[in-house]
Amino acid sequence: MRLRTGLRFSLLFACFALLPAAAEAEWHAVEKVQTYSIAGKSGPELYTSIGERGPKVGGLARAIAHTSFKLTWSRKYEAQGDACVLVSALPKLAITYTLPQPAKQLPASTREHWQAFIAGVHKHERVHGDFIKDMVQKIEAATVGLTVSADPQCRKIKTELTRRLAKLSNAQRQQSRDFDRAELSDGGNIHQLILKLVNGR
User: Between the CA of residue 201 and those of 40, 117, 127, what are the distances in Å?
Assistant: First the structure.
């Protein structure tokens, strides 16, 4: 019986000893909210101000809100024989949600409608954040372990890596565009939020 207990302890110790190494490979996105100031006391006034002050998307039309991100990678390449292998890739992801915020306290008649509106808009932007996090996970899955033969200097592998990244990035952008189109269409979620804010109901 003592031998079994000792063996069980040894196995548990070995498992716990491996935990720090596994934790080092984990990553978490840093998410923050920044605001821009809008004027007005009624729903129509607030929405008009959003149209005048909202973030420009692509340098063109103004949006109600916007999700942006910064992504960098720490990658380790290894030459294995005549091939090059991407043995690890650790992302550093920061996501910023830009939302409108009234400059002054709102009257009670408007406050409830505004709170429902901004909560819905924030939820919408967080879906964009989820798309971005999902893209990063797909990049990990598609690139870690990537092996390119006849590349001992690890040059060709970077070209292949760029090709894969472009494909996943384009897919994420299209996913976001499709989501916005559905949400902003007549009867869509954001369209409904705008109507309720402007109409006060």
Answer: 17, 11, 25
pLDDT digits (tens, 9 = 90+) for 72-107: 999 999 999 999 999 999 999 999 999 999 999 999
The structure's pTM equals 0.83
Q: How confident is the model at residue 61 (pLDDT cuts 50, 70, 90)?
A: confident
* Measured CA distances, 34 to 66, 98, 99 (Å): 10, 5, 6
Rounded to whole angstroms, the Cα distance separating 62 from 55 reads: 5
Task: Dig out the tokens for 8 from the structure.
Answer: 């069980």
- The Cα 180–Cα 89 span in angstroms is 31
Quick check: 40 and 46 in contact, CB under 8 A? yes
**DSSP three-state, residue 83:** strand
Q: SS3 breakdown of the chain: % helix, strand, coil, rounded to 5?
A: 55, 25, 20
